[in-house]
Structure formats: C-alpha cells, structure tokens
Amino acid sequence: TASAIRNFSEALKLKPDWSLAHYGLGAAYCDQGDQEHCRIELSKAIQLDPGNAQARSYLASLLLKANQLPEAIEQLETVCRLRPDDARAHVQLGLAYLQSGNPPKAIEQFQRHLATHPKDAETHYHLGVALGQNGDLNSALAEFRRTIKIDPSFGPAHQAAGTALRRQGDDPAALHEFQEAVRLMPQDRKS
If DSSP codes are grouped into helix, strand and coil, which group holds residue 20? Predict the structure, then answer.
C-alpha cells in the first residue's frame, strides 16, 4: 500500500489532472486506514471526471460509514444515473434511503434490483424492512417469507417475520419464527 501511494503520488506530480490516479491514490489511502486523505483524493477524482462512477461509489461507502447520509445519497443517485444497471449501487442507495427514513424511495430501489436479481435473499429482507417501515405489514411479511424460502438459514428474516406475525396477532407462528432465529443466531439472544 505504501508503494501504491508513492507510485500514484509520483504519477500525479507528472500529470496532476489524472482522475484515475487520484482514484487509485484515494483507494490506497483507504486501504491504509487514512479516511481523510482517501476522501480528498476521491473528491479530486470526481471533480476531474464527474462521470467516474467508481470513485463516486467508493466515496458514498465512506460517507455511509460516517453517517453522512445526504451526501452519500447524492453520490449514489449519480452512480445510478451513470450506471442504471449497477445492481450494487441500487441496493446501496436503497439502504441509504432506509437509514435516512425514506422507505418509499428505498422500496423503489430494492424493487428495481430484485427485478433483475429475484433470488437475492438479502435484498428481499431489506425490502421487507422498508415495507414494514412504510406501514405495509402484509407485504413486509411476504418479503421475509421470500427471504426464508431463498435462504432458510437467514436468521434476521426469521426474527423480522416473528415480529411481523406478533404484530398481526399470530403468536404461535411468531414463536416458531423467533425460535428459528435463536437457533440460527445463538449469539443474539434478544430474538
């Protein structure tokens, strides 16, 4: 990593407006744990090449970790415009919308991803969470059940299904899901 930083820095002395080198330098700083310099270099890469979706996606990940949701959402929205078929970007954007308290937009992004990746258990789970936050408990439960059908060992889906069933008043079915969640996630006894 130190040699990558050195090499990219030397290249930028020769060609300071090289977006790809700023991106590489930013990634190398991130690998070293230097988030500040990573963000600076990724921002320079984007400034030099606004169409650099990789740099935007990387920067969005850093912003999400720093809980800077509006900035992360802005970057991810741009990535999704630049790369409409980038499934990962749509899921990341959906998660950012979910974190920011905007379940309708999260639902839209998750559904868009699932249209081309219907067997993605984790995204079905996230869609269920968003639907639940949006007040559609029946659809949320259906998504948790889809998640479990795709991946029966997905413990959080059992836990979420149990919570939804309990809210619907089906305590025996809820208990079954909670027991399954505890079996699958013994480290999380809060299930």
Answer: helix
